[in-house]
Design brief:
single chain, alpha/beta, Rossmann fold, about 40% helix
Length: about 475
């Protein structure tokens, strides 16, 4: 994650530097949407979810929010949501909240029965949408096979801007000395992209799929007007993980440079890892319908769309540190081994995410049995319990062990008591408690996770009361049906 770029965007966004912004869209009556809304809380937002949850629907609804400044390129709901012999499109309501300058206005598009009702005046904005069709090989696109067979010469050529060619080279990890689009004597309206490598020039008829799609995308984006709305469905298509990361970093840079708003859909953890929490939106289906979750971890998002083991019970915690502590608490119970084999512990993000997921689980709105465990410094919430103590786990564990004069830790770390106690005490002086285990690990030559696991294990041995341990384990056992 490019923290410096994200901090710049966050600060400028909070200061109102994006003069046009789609803040919210609400969908009712389309493809499983029953009135849920998506809040767009960052200039670049990724929507993730398994196939069929409504990601593409949300992107298409967003594209209809504005009248395009080029009138012929305006998108209408009827463009995307057509009535067929098998699909009835009616009883639809699309609500929007749009910010222009310092003013925010709501408006509505609806189709109660046969006709779409669209306001006569919509806010104007340049809108660009790139869907999965952009990944088609060039010779599979209409009209291009003829060019491949019959073209004898090119009649015009347009070079990609040097800066964007450099961005293309960086994203794909190859040094392109040239990038251009040419038209042939067969069809002057259809352009063919060409890239120059060390062995010569190669056209889109023979480029790799990632080269083909990224070249087309960057050609369009080099001329995208300021303050536009850019929408990309399945942004990671045809790109390897490193290229996916670099593409997102490019989109962040472009968003800040041109004050554009970017909405993408993805199935990739690499895309999510490059974005801040407020830029991640998970569409989570359940028995009672779709839920919209914000600020999730990439790991949890992927666990909901990946094929894998299906535990009897899922426990939501805030982060990896909480996961390690919970495992050690359960392992300290006589039945801990069996319990651990039947559950999954998922770090999902900050306390508000744990609370929301716990609430959904409590009200049977998830497809699986679950509950949340919050850090001790969080207020209790429906569907959740708390870890022991009244502070974050690092405070609880470090202070608890210090209260027992770091008992047995010199032997477990293999370091003299004087040196180890100084290292541990010094780490606790740092005001940012999440750094404590890293500071200790740097001095004792262990990873942060190894240090934390050892400390949690020792804390459970000498600080954890049977009452606190049994409260957590009994809650789990009740949900497992013991």
């Amino acid at each position: 994650m490019d923290h410096a770029e994200i901090n710049k965007i966050s600060n400028q966004f909070q200061a109102g530097a994006w003069p046009q912004f789609l803040e919210q869209l609400e969908i009712k009556g389309l493809r499983g949407w029953t009135g849920q809304s998506i809040n767009l809380n960052f200039p670049v937002v990724a929507i993730v979810g398994e196939n069929g949850t409504g990601k593409s629907t949300a992107l298409k609804v967003a594209a209809c929010a504005y009248e395009n400044k080029v009138a012929s390129k305006t998108y209408y709901p009827s463009t995307f949501f057509i009535k067929t012999p098998w699909d009835s499109v009616q009883g639809v309501t699309l609500n929007y909240r749009i910010k222009t300058g310092n003013e925010t206005k709501p408006f509505r598009i609806a189709k109660p029965s046969k006709r779409w009702s669209i306001p006569s005046k919509r806010i104007k904005r340049h809108v660009y949408i790139f869907d999965i069709s952009r990944t088609l090989p060039l010779d599979a696109s209409a009209g291009y096979a003829k060019i491949a067979r019959l073209a004898a010469a090119e009649i015009s050529s347009n070079e990609i801007d040097q800066e964007y060619r450099g961005r293309l080279s960086h994203i794909l990890g190859r040094n392109y000395s040239g990038a251009r689009f040419a038209t042939s004597d067969v069809d002057k309206k259809r352009e063919v992209g060409l890239l120059t490598l060390e062995y010569g020039e190669i056209s889109q008829f023979h480029q790799g799929a990632g080269e083909d799609t990224t070249l087309d995308l960057l050609r369009a984006l080099q001329s995208i007007p300021d303050n536009s709305l850019l929408i990309i469905d399945e942004v990671e298509a045809s790109l390897h993980p490193r290229a996916q990361r670099r593409l997102v970093r490019f989109l962040l840079w472009l968003s800040r440079q041109k004050r554009i708003q970017v909405i993408i859909s993805t199935h990739s953890p690499y895309i999510l890892e490059e974005l801040p929490m407020e830029a991640r939106v998970l569409l989570l289906p359940g028995p009672a319908g779709l839920s919209v979750i914000y600020g999730i971890t990439p790991e949890f998002a992927m666990s909901r769309i990946d094929e894998g083991l299906h535990p009897e019970l899922t426990i939501f915690v805030e982060d990896k540190e909480s996961k390690t502590l919970l495992r050690e608490i359960i392992a300290a119970h006589p039945e801990g081994g069996e319990i651990l084999s039947r559950i999954s512990i998922d770090p999902v993000g900050p306390a508000n995410v744990v609370k929301l997921l716990g609430h959904l689980a409590h009200n049977d709105r998830l497809r699986y049995k679950a509950f949340g465990i919050l850090d001790g410094d969080s207020e209790n919430s429906e569907g959740c319990i708390n870890f022991p103590g009244n502070e974050a786990p690092e405070y609880v564990v470090f202070n608890g062990l210090k209260g027992f004069n770091w008992r047995d830790l010199p032997e477990r770390f293999g370091i003299g008591a004087g040196s180890l106690f100084t290292i541990l005490d010094d780490a606790m002086l740092d005001p940012y408690h999440h750094k404590w285990t890293s500071l200790v690990g740097d001095k004792v030559l262990k990873s942060s996770s190894s240090v934390w696991e050892l400390l949690c294990n020792q804390w459970c041995r000498i600080c954890l009361t049977d009452e606190n341990r049994d409260f957590i384990v009994d809650t789990i056992k009740d949900l497992l049906g013991y």
